Here is the input.
Amino acid sequence: MQAWQVHENGEPSEVMRLAEVERPTPGDGQVLLRVRAANVNFPDALLCRGQYQVRPPLPFTPGVEICGETEDGRRVIANPALPHGGFAEYALADARALLPAPESLDDAEVAALHIGYQTGWFGLHRRAALEAGETLLVHAAAGGVGSAAVQLGKAAGATVIGVVGGADKAAVARELGCDVVVDRRSEDVVAAVKEATGGRGADVIYDPVGGAAYAQSAKLVAFEGRIVVVGFASGTVPSPALNHALVKNYSILGLHWGLYATKNPKLIQHCHEQLTELAARGAIKPLVSERVPLAQAADAVQRVADGVTTGRIAVVPGNGAAA
Here is the structure.
């Protein structure tokens, strides 16, 4: 079969190589899945760079989120068991962790439903307790993680402010349903959000960016607001001023969604049921901006790493007939 492999750490476009390899053999508790579609995530770039919290042995195949097909023909959502990741024609996964694919979504949309939307749901509902009528600010609102949070915020009845970088991404954020869109490249984010909220700020701020975005969040969080720290796509990990949190009465909430798989896996199943219901009634729908063949996976991962994409890119291997 064909699979992308990383033999040394570095930039995805330089270290990912497409090769003919043996189809992986499932271990205890694992299942072999035909990859129908694989979603490109920022952690795939971090894996290539050797900067992710999980470091699989070299060589490995990246790809942490797929829509797969079981031997009996069922479509499922899976997080592949590294080193046999999803940018391949076949991948391995933990049989106990498979989730049924929502019938309302196609393969590429299914592949993009799990990590981003689960992270958004846990961040907004489990950690921040977002309520209808509150104001939610989402950084990188047109990106894969941000777009999921925007849709989930609207589904929860919040007023959503999206911060983006560029006119094209601003247009995408409006299409996603943002009530207010702020282009950080042409506007003063702090001034624009304060104007939009009458000086009050946002009740919940969803931040997958870090760096300068976090500094803006601290200035914009409302009284008794909550800042949800999801990741550091900017490459800069901020150092919060805790005296500032004390003075303004706001909370800083960390979210490492992957921990729930070991700490409370039943919540992941519960979340999936909620997401399936939301998808069935059209309240959420993954924004798949591109569907690319397997041969273009390395380029797709690099573009996600560079922050030049909107929504999600899905890698679609094809019929997977190769041995």
The first strand starts at residue 2 and ends at 6. Confidence is low (pLDDT under 50) at residues 319-323. DSSP finds twelve helices and 15 strands in the chain.
